[in-house]
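Design review, sub-item: ligand-bound model
Attendees: FS, YL, KQ
YL presented the inputs for the 1,6-di-O-phosphono-beta-D-fructofuranose complex:
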Amino acid sequence: MLPHATDAISRDGKSLILAYDHGLEHGPVDFDPNPDTADPERVFELATHDAVTAIAVQKGLAEAYYPDYADDTALVVKVNGTSNLWMGEPDTPVNCTPEYAAGLGADAVGFTLYGGANNEIGMAEEFREVQESSREHDLGVVMWAYPRGQGVRNETDDRTIAYAARIAHELGADIAKVKYPGSPEAMAETVRMSARTRVVMSGGSKTNDESFLRTVEESMNAGAKGLAVGRNVFQRDNPIEILDALELVVFEGASTEEAMAE
Ligand code: FBP
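KQ shared the predicted structure:
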């Protein structure tokens, strides 16, 4: 296989990115189901599980905790992000440059683009700077491709999600992180639209083991290259168990039933 810009956050061309920027994006409410997870160390420890190919955090957590885990997991620094206290149209400031992320030991950057928001133009211009600077610093580029805002009637509509994946490809992302578009056929179409940009499924709010694993299985069968997941791992009573199951489905091609039987 030819080298890929995201090899450092992948295994066999697939990624399982443990997303943990929720303290910024959603606030303390996301730690309620499992209060220990307010302590970033608990989640950095989960990122050392074999199934996890990288942890994705904002710069503050990368600065404070990653030095202790750098030997055990790869790092995606999320370079933009905003709080849930913001009540305007979807928008997000750049909190960290790729150069600074590289200094923190990052292997890739993560960037949210809200296609369809009033400030899509501004975010796309910021993405240009981040993407080009990431190339200079040998960082992979993961786009959180989230259509949202006044121009978007339904952000989980299958055509909208396929469009988001295509935007990621056109603008030079290596990986497009998209919401599950509702069916295996719709995921296959999203993968087709993203062409050489790899698609990873976004975990979403916590669901039961079977329905979560089923969407992962369907996504993988449709050509997705893994997932970026937060709540469906760290909000569980037994996050190791679901990581064990995800390892089988994502990297071993196991079915939901096989993974749950282990
Ligand atoms: P989840 O798996 O918990 O959905 O995390 C993925 C993620 O993209 C996080 O990186 C981010 O904090 C959150 O979802 C954003 O979710 P929302 O759709 O509510 O903006």
